[in-house]
Structure formats: C-alpha cells, structure tokens
Amino acid sequence: MNAIPLTHVLMVSTALFFIGVYGFFTRRNLITMLMSIELILNSVNINFVAFNKYLYPEQMEGLFFSLFTIAIAAAEAAVAIAIIINLYRTHSSIDVEDADELKL
Amino acid sequence: MSSSVLILLLPFISFVVSGIWGRKYLKNFSGILGTVCMLVSFILAASVAYNYFFVTGRVGGQYLGTIPFEMNWLRFTNELSINIGILIDPISVMMLLVVTFISLMVHVYSLGYMKGEERYATYYSFLSLFTFSMLGLVVATNIFQTYVFWELVGVSSFLLIGFYFQKASAVAASKKAFIVTRFADLGFLAGILVLSYYSGSLDFKEIIARYTDPANPHLQAIATASFGGVSALSWALTLIFIGGAGKSAMFPLHIWLPDAMEGPTPVSALIHAATMVVAGVYLVARLFPVYAISCPAALHVVAIVGVISAAFAALIACTQTDIKRVLAYSTMSQIGFMMFALGVSKYGGEEGLGYMASMFHLFTHAVFKALLFLCAGTIIHHVHSNELKDMGGLRKSMPLTHITFLLACLAIAGIPPFAGFFSKEEILSAAFQHDPVIYWAAIATAALTSFYMFRLFFMTFYYDGEKKAEAHGHDDHSAGHSSIAMTGVQVVLAIGAVVAGFVPFGQFVSSDGFALPTHIDISFSVLPVSLSIGGILLAMFFFYKKSDKAIRISEGLGSVFVTLKHKFYIDEIYAFVTKKIIFNLIAAPAAWIDKNIVDGMMNTFAKATEVFSFSLSGWQSGKVQSYAAWFLAGVLSLVLISLYLLQLL
Asked: B195 falls in which pLDDT band (50, 70, 90)?
C-alpha cells in the first residue's frame, strides 16, 4: 500500500498547481480561467489528502478540509459563472481583456 | 405672569408658521395670522402695562423692576451662566407697548400695502421675526440677552431692507446696513466683555447695583483699571454706546439709515423709524444709573454725539428730494434729541428730567414718525415714485392722507397741543438746565425740524398742480389707495399723534422710579414754539406755490448747499477710507498673502501628490491576469526570501 512515496504524490499536485497557474495566466477566456482555478484548488485537495494519509493517518482533518474546499469551490463556481453570464450580457464577450473598466 | 412670555411667543409662532408653510400653503392667510398674533400680543402687553403701572408695580411710591420669568439658558461653569428672561420695569413695559402697538399698526397697514406681493408670506414672517426679536431685546434681563436679540433685530432689518432683492440698490443697502451695524456691534461686544469682566455678572440688576455703589469693590476695580489714560468703566460704557450709536444711526455711524429706505415703506415705519433705531437710546437708558452716577464722562460723550447728530441730520434733511430720505434724516435728528436728553440728564428726582424726556420723546416719536412713514407709503403707492418732484398738489386726490400727514408734521414740529410739543419741551428744558450750548443747538435744530418737515408737506400736497403721470391710469392704484387697512391705520395713528402728549409720562417713567411731576412752563415754551412756527412760515413762503425762490436761495448758498445736498460727503469719506485705505493697504496685501502663500503652500502639496500618484497609476492596468502574475511573483519571492532567511536553501 505504501509503495508510492509521499513525494510522488506531491509532485503530481505541484504539477497540477502550475498547470492551473499557467492556464490562469495565459488563457483569455473566462471559463477556461475558471477551470484553471479549479485545477489549482484540486491540487490543494490532493495535498490535504496526501498529508493526512501519510503523516497523520489516525486523524481526519485533512479529509474534512478537502471536503470544505470542494464545497467552497462549488459555490465559487456558481458565483463566477453568474458573473460571467452578466459580463456576457453587458459586453457581449467573455474575454478577460474586454473587462477593463476599473482601470484608471 | 406667564402672559408676558406669550407676548414674545406669539410673534415667534407666526414667524415659524408663515416662514415654513407660508409660501406653499398659507399664501394669503399668513398676513391675517401675523396680524392676529400681533393683536393678541398687543392686548397682552396692554394688560401687562395696566397691571404694572396701576396695580402691582408701584411699591412705596417707586416703580421697581420685577422678573416674572427667567431660566438658565447657557451654563458654562458654576460662576458663568447666561440666563434668558423677562424684565418688567417702567421702560421695558413702555417699550413693550410701543413695539406691539406700532408693529400691530404696520401689520394691518401691510395687509393693504403689500397685497398681491409675490413674497407676501415671507414678508409677514420677517416682520414677525423682527417683532419677536425687538420684544426680546426690550425685556432682556441681562446684557447678553440684549446682545443676542440685538443681533437678531439686525438680521431681520437686513432681511427686510433687502426684501426687494431683485433691485441692486436694495441689496447694496441691506449689506451696508448690516456691515455698518455689525461694525458698531463689535464695540458693543467689547464693552459687554469689559463691563461684565469687572462686575462678575451679566445681569442688569447686578451690574447696576455693583457699579453705582461707591464702596463696592467691583466698581473700584473697574474705575482704577485704566487703558490709555481712561478708566475701564469709561471705556466699557463708551464702547457700549458705540454699539447703540450704530443701531440708532448716530453720527458718524448713520450712513446706513438713509439707504435702508430701500425696504418696503411699512418696514421703514416699523424698524427704521419707530422701534429698532431707538434700541441704542434704550440701551443707554437701561444702563443709565451706571452712566449717570459712576461715569458722567461717558454720558457727556452721549450728549455730544446726540446733539451733533440732531443738528447734522436736520441740516441734511432740508436738501434731500426723496420723501423717505427726508424722513430718515428726520428720524436720525429726533433720535439725536433723545440721546442728548439722556446725555444732559442726571440720576434721580428733578435732575433726572432729561431721562424722562428722552423716554417720552421716544414714545411720542414712535407714534408720529410711524404715521409719517405710513403716509409716505400711501403717497408712494399713489404716485409710484419716491421723488418730491413727482408729487405736488396731492391734497385734492388724497384728502385723508393730507390731514393725517399734517397732524404728524405738527406733532414733530412741536406745535402745541400735539404729541411732539410735550416731549420736546421736556427735552429742551432739561437741556436748558444743564448745558446752554446744547440748549441753543437744540432750539436751532427744532426750528430746522419744522422747516424741513413743512417743506416736505408743502412740496407733497401743494406747490404745484398734481402731476398727470401715466401711473395714475393704473388699475391697481385706486384699489391700493382706498384700502381700508391703510387709511384706518393712518387715522388711528393720527389720533395717537394728537393725544399721546397728554399722557402723564413722568408719573410712570423716571430715572429712579419715583413719579416726576411734569409741568409746561408757558414762558419757556414761547421761544421754541415761535421758532417752530417761524420754520413753518418760512417753508410756506418757499414751497406753498411753485416758484424759483428756493432754487435762487440754494444757488446763492453755493458750495454750502452742495455740501448739504451731498450729506457732508460722509459716504464719500467712508468710500475713500474703505476702498482706498483699508482695501489697498490692508485687504489687498492680506488677500495676496492668502492667495500666494497660504493657498500656494497647499497647492504645492496637492500638485506633488498628484504627480506622484500619476506615476503610480500605470500599474493599475485593469488586466486581471497581469495582476495575478505580479501577485504570484510576489508570493514566490516571499517564499524564496523566507526560505533563505530560515537557512533552508
């Protein structure tokens, strides 16, 4: 069962995190950016679960935290999509470059 | 005696109601409301006066002041608190009667005069505000309350002078009146501070008690303290008199009064003839025991300023051609009479005749001068002009005004048995007893008074055939002139001008509260009365029929006449002092410092901040992803730094 060491799992989550960051920086489409954020959040979830599993197997906090993260991610996705829909209605675009009214 | 509080409250209620709701909802009702409030106020004042003078006031043959209502208004420390209350004593009761009566007359008169005015409700609310303030001023129990209401009458006078604010001249006049009287009030305030600093009390009763007893330590302190070689008491009383002189239009602070005639004529009758302008006289009378007993020098200043103003204004009045300006200068002259009557008086007994005479003249003057102004208002309403040249021959078209104006003129000229005769005789005999110079100046001024008043009378009602100005075809003029409110008030006041002199005034008002029997000495009266009749005859000679006699005389007088016509160039002197000296030497440099140094410093700070922030604003690109990139870079560098610091790398 412990054949896979912790560092391997952390490699995966780090890779996932940076894939998400890369997508967040380079994509102009808001929905794709939202998906990138989900990737970042999931990399954190993997970390929680992995640390819980490998370091403190008798405790449950890591699992609980990942459950929280999933719930919050769901709520955040709902809000973000509502924003994107409104943005589309007013700007006829979901390109992040077009939403720049707040700059000086 | 809560009815005395109600006397003040009723005009205040009328002011608030027609001030807030008048323009929208009570457009025509506010006049009635104000008048009814004034009527009730007047009845209450009359009952208070009856009670005071005939029932409760006299204790052992002497009238003493009582305070039916007083409350603590501002409490600063245990020693320093300011009360507000009602003081009932002979002069305040007399003033209550005069103010409520004249105000009632003016309220009624305005029902006709201001009919159809766009800001009718506003007018009535201002009028009520004025009446409230004036009543508060006369019943003040302490000098600070006097000051508060003093400023309030100043404000309401300002509002009413500038009532026709579309006219540039009215705006200028209201500003002039406000600034000049405010300037004088600076003296008043300084006087109050000096006076109450040494007395340790603001109460009139306390101030008078402490400053009239030679053994009192307060009096000794203020009398020994000196500034510039003059005792602090003289300073305080003179400064307070400066405040009074500003309000009462005494030379050289009189310049606002003639211009104040820009206001509606009933306002001139109420504020600038009968009530507010005598506030200065009233103030000196209020503190009279202190002036007379402890500081005769300050009282001497009052006498000199009074007699100069009386003579000066009478001279100018002979040359003016605006009916209201003539009346304004005559008001100033009559107030001068009141002032010097106070000035020559002493405290107590027969010696206090001047005090009684001054108050008596204040009383009769209020009646006949209000009548003169209201008649002038009717005339102006009729001919639509203030200028005497547009009048003449009006006796046929305005018979009633002709009679009432004549009665008022006889009263002011001091012809027996009209009101002015009695009070002026008392003033002249007081002056005769104490100061021959003032007496002769007063006699000459009294003769001039009858000359200029009858010049006005003849030029208005005789002189020339009635001008057939186009204004006479107006529809509103017949409605305006025949208004019962206006003529009724004229008749009531004319009766007052005839009978007011028969009031045994000395029985009620005297410097020490004991009855002072008044008697008219026929042999003494011969000279002033014959001089007055001479003045009338002279005016008749010049102005009964149109002729060039007067013009030839005025040309013969040359530069003297021109100087008088230009009111001794006092306005020009003020303009020179304010514009050339104060403006160029003080105001302009101060403005430069303000603009360039004070503002400049602030502007430099603002500019520097602006430049700095613009240099930062480029960072705010509005691009979410670049923010996120910066954020990530920041986090990564923080992580690297902390790793380095923790020696883990």
From this structure: confident
pLDDT in tens, B549-605: 777 777 777 777 777 777 777 778 888 888 888 888 888 889 999 989 999 999 999
Residue B340 to residue B280: CA distance in whole angstroms: 12
Yes or no: domain A6-91 corresponds to CATH 1.10.287.3510: yes
- Closest by CA to B185, choosing from B117, B252, B247, is B247
The pLDDT value recorded for residue B625 is 82
Closest CA to B275 of B185, B157, B186: B157
Q: Which of B148, B203, B153, B157 is nearest to B177 (CA)?
A: B157
CA distance B619 to chain A (A): 9
Nearest to residue B129, comparing CAs of B270, B305, B308, B25? B270
Number of residues in chain B: 649
Phi-psi region of B453 (alpha: psi -120 to 50; beta: other; left: phi over 0): alpha
The beta-carbon neighbor of B622 closest among A21, A26, A103 is A103
Residue B181 and residue B259: Cα distance in Å, rounded? 13
| pLDDT of the residue at B471 | 46
Cα–Cα distance list, B516 to B65, B426, B554 (Å): 17, 12, 45
Q: What SS3 state is found at B445?
A: helix
Nearest to A33 by CA among A101, A99, A103: A99
Q: Highest mean pLDDT: which of A46-50, B288-292, B372-376? A: A46-50
- A→B contacts (Cβ < 8 Å), by residue, are 21, 24-26, 33, 96-97, 99-104
Query: Which chain A residues are Cβ-neighbours of B622 within 8 angstroms?
Result: 99-103
Q: CA B171, CA B183: separation in Å to the nearest integer? A: 18
Among chain B residues, CA nearest to A98: B623
Alpha-helical (H) ranges within B114-255 are 120-138, 143-161, 168-199, 204-212, 217-224, 232-247
Give which of B155, B305, B156 is closest to B245, Cα–Cα: B305
CA distance B648 to B612: 39
Q: What mean pLDDT value characterizes chain B?
A: 84
As a dihedral over the C-alpha atoms of residue B254, residue B259, residue B260, residue B263, rounded to 10 degrees, the angle is: 170
Distance from CA of B642 to the nearest CA of A (A): 19
Q: Does the ipTM surpass 0.90?
A: no
Q: Is the pLDDT of residue A64 over 80?
A: yes
A55-59, B244-248, B460-464: lowest mean pLDDT where?
Answer: B460-464
Burial of B393: CB neighbours in 10 Å, binned 0-12, 13-18, 19+: middle
Q: Rounded to whole angstroms, how far apart are CA atoms B484 and B506?
A: 36
What pLDDT is stored for residue B67 in this prediction? Answer: 83
Q: What is the pLDDT of residue B480?
A: 45
- Calculate the CA B489 to chain-centre distance: 22
Mutation to test the B interface, candidates A36, A96, A103, most B Cβ within 10 Å: A103
* Closest C-alpha among B302, B290, B174 to residue B250: B302
Sign of CA dihedral B563, B567, B570, B572: negative
Which chain A residue lies closest to B620 (C-alpha atoms)? A103
Rounded CA-CA distance A37/A24 in Å is: 7
How many C-beta atoms surround the C-beta of residue B629 within 10 A?
Answer: 14
pLDDT of B477 > 80? The answer is no
- Mean residue pLDDT of chain A comes to 89
Query: Which residue bears the tokens 């009548």?
Result: B371
Stretch 600-629 of chain B: residues touching chain A, C-beta under 8 Å: 617, 620-625, 628-629
Cβ separation A96–B624 shorter than 8 A: yes
- First-last CA distance in chain A: 57
Distance between CA atoms of residues A23 and B549, nearest Å: 109
pLDDT band at B221 (very low <50, low <70, confident <90, very high): confident
